[in-house]
Amino acid sequence: MSEQMNGAESLVRTLIAGGVNVCFTNPGTSEMHFVAALDKVPGMRCVLGLFEGVVTGAADGYYRMLGKPASTLLHLGPGLANGLANLHNAKKASSGIVNIVGEHATYHIAHDAPLTSDIEGVARPMSHWVKTSPNSTTIAADGALAIEAACTAPGQIATLILPADTAWGPANGIAETRPQPPLPKVSEDAVKAAAAMLTSGQKATLLMGGAALRHATLELAGRIAAKTGCGILTEGANTRLERGAGRVQVERIPYVVDKALGVMKEAGNLVLVGAREPVAFFAYPNKPSLLMAEGAKSTKLAGIEDDMHAALEALAIELGAIATPPARVAAPRRPAIPTGAIRPETIAPILGALIPENAIVVDESVTTGREFFGETAGAPPHDWINNRGGSIGYGLPVAIGAAIACPDRKVLAMIGDGSAMYTIQALWTMARENLDVTVLIFANGSYNILRGELTNVGVRNPGPRAVDMLSLGRPDLDWVQMARSMGVPARRADDCAQLAKAIEAGLASGGPNLVQVSM
Amino acid sequence: MSEQMNGAESLVRTLIAGGVNVCFTNPGTSEMHFVAALDKVPGMRCVLGLFEGVVTGAADGYYRMLGKPASTLLHLGPGLANGLANLHNAKKASSGIVNIVGEHATYHIAHDAPLTSDIEGVARPMSHWVKTSPNSTTIAADGALAIEAACTAPGQIATLILPADTAWGPANGIAETRPQPPLPKVSEDAVKAAAAMLTSGQKATLLMGGAALRHATLELAGRIAAKTGCGILTEGANTRLERGAGRVQVERIPYVVDKALGVMKEAGNLVLVGAREPVAFFAYPNKPSLLMAEGAKSTKLAGIEDDMHAALEALAIELGAIATPPARVAAPRRPAIPTGAIRPETIAPILGALIPENAIVVDESVTTGREFFGETAGAPPHDWINNRGGSIGYGLPVAIGAAIACPDRKVLAMIGDGSAMYTIQALWTMARENLDVTVLIFANGSYNILRGELTNVGVRNPGPRAVDMLSLGRPDLDWVQMARSMGVPARRADDCAQLAKAIEAGLASGGPNLVQVSM
To answer: Does the CB of A29 have a partner CB in chain B at under 8 Å?
Structure first.
């Protein structure tokens, strides 16, 4: 190249050379040199979001499906702040993301212009790695470090802050990203301790999480279960679970504390494989935080940062189970489609009947979806994605990232109406990118989960102020108009037959579409 | 009361006793005891937002109009994070806000549940005051401290973190909020230095900001200008400017650096009254950060935390100008309504013709609005509100807060389409509260400001990647359907006559309504 590249171009080229070739963007003035570099350098797919929570959530979904980071482009501290809630969710899901956050030129910061803020301070609570690159000759190397941080097993949030003069000043070229070391193998002692727990004669369960929820690893768990009689469980919310007919089936620990305690009592001692001792989502007066059964013990076979497949393989060998046919394999089952009114219990079999093979199901169905899991267990093989961080508004953006990552698969996003409103701008990006996403909005017109929680804290007959704060009514949201306003075709379903037809039509369309599931 | 109150109730009662009687809310499970207390205790108006940026922006608008803080209710770290961008804007506007942020029960935090995060870390970059209240007997006193912090002149962001067990445990009663001390008076030396600068024979200008932009204080500036021949200027973005026919007129420093430098050259030396030496919004290669004319000096008469009205009064007396009829008083002027196509230059006179007396104009018109200010100077008296922090998505939420604060006034929110999408959920709250807000969406289908900035950084013929990242097209947003989906009546205007008619009808409706201004 005869023309010297600037810092922004050296960063874009470093990202692409390091395997980061998707950028979810919401740029501003301070990022214009980066945008110009994206324009100039081929090889980066740029996907615009109209709100930063869409951008960061999409990067989360992308990582969950491909296991490699996308980049985001965010405008200064407030732009990063808008993306922070979904970075929280991504962090809890161990998704790797490279955030590029624009900053004023280094000499401009001291002048405290309107958009000046403590960007590192904003980044830190939701990032594993934060760095402001001081000048245009350092940014390529810092970009490589950011990729390495994001790729560090099991995946990390790396936030690289790019001052405008670092972007526009002259650079020396690109930097190389070092490959990741192989995943750590667990110790023989950990394998022996797990084997001892599973063969002690006491009830025991494999509690699985992270990448241990892939088909091949679950099959090892199934062999161990067949040999020892142990259970197989996961936490309530999973990064990505491969499931469906012919695969080893895993139950999730319920959200409601009393139900969870019942399940954990049955589970007994725990062998932890990419999971921690289970914890309640929230604390409640006179209920425990830790959901372990009384007297139950746990032993850690492998953490999410370890080679969990190898660990389970070693355990299966130790137990003589490596050739045992797996237990708990889900039989193919397509429930009959019910008729009549739409209720959580009638939606579940409709989903079980219609989830297509190889679908990616993004579950943010909150209260509506509590029965979905069981009824869909026998559907053809599919992936199931949950919110690991609990900040609602994750589902629509994650669906975007999953669809970008896997253009040949159908995405079914099941979203509560309250949740959908946090990042509703995602619909526009689905339309622009013509993504194969069918969105179900469960329109119960309330923060239904909170009604239950209000009862839990002792309010039996809430007054109008409380009811109003938990209701999405006055006025009702019209999801069909909402979707169409952003270019997404939409239908409304008022009974089970309409719902089944709408889901079938949506999935068949091959493009983005939304179904208002009126309840 | 025979029943002992809990921490949440003691906090609600402390807030109300301290004059904080509006709560913009988006609650979650960890805030249910606070919601229950709001339900039980009369005296707090609760306004639900479906996204936290709406909540915090509304609190900003409320303070700008009333000069007293509202409270917000936010759900843990991610809920606060979603509200952070508009807290940034509020902080830069010196708006006082009391944020109540729920947190897990203190003993639950160590278990690192899904929603656990470093809430204080999230709060700090956008707060002046942050405290986690350790237990239910401290929360009332901490609530009073939060109110005092929020009310500290000229207004501060106070973030009070409320662990669930602090909310549900037993309290001792309410706490009293101490009154604020009177605003500091400026020194005689400061007055004399300002007088000397204005009478030195060199060009000089009063650069005004904050609460100095109220009618009565501006009149003092007008008397001084009449006596000394000085100019009167404000920064580009103001918290709230009282203006219109019969009031002393103030020009704003333009956004574009070269234009700003021209204005500042004319301005000469600066007497600072609630303003700082002006700074460019962004840095650009080979352009200055500080917009002072070469060789110009400044002297600080009063900061925004001082009694600026008294300072200008003292200065007027010092100059013998206290009885001089003010200069630069705007003459009543209603421009003729143009015909034909809608362009920025034709919208401006329509606004000048139609802005009603006593209106609150919230300006987030970005590129479209660069000519609005001049053409509306002679409209009947009204308030003009700008984005002090520069994070777009402030306008619709601030309009909510202004309308709640001033139910007898009409609010005209002028919003660029790109900006509107960040906090579009605000429309629903406008509908629910039946607020008298007319929203104009300038639908130019792009982040138009960034097209100019891309040219500024040297990209003359942007390729498809760059164009796509700055365009809101593919698909176009349908603002009429968007508004109706959230219960807000809407119209589309395709020419000047339609636009004038739509604005008139919207203002006459007395309720929320939206006009898609198609450009």
So the answer is: yes
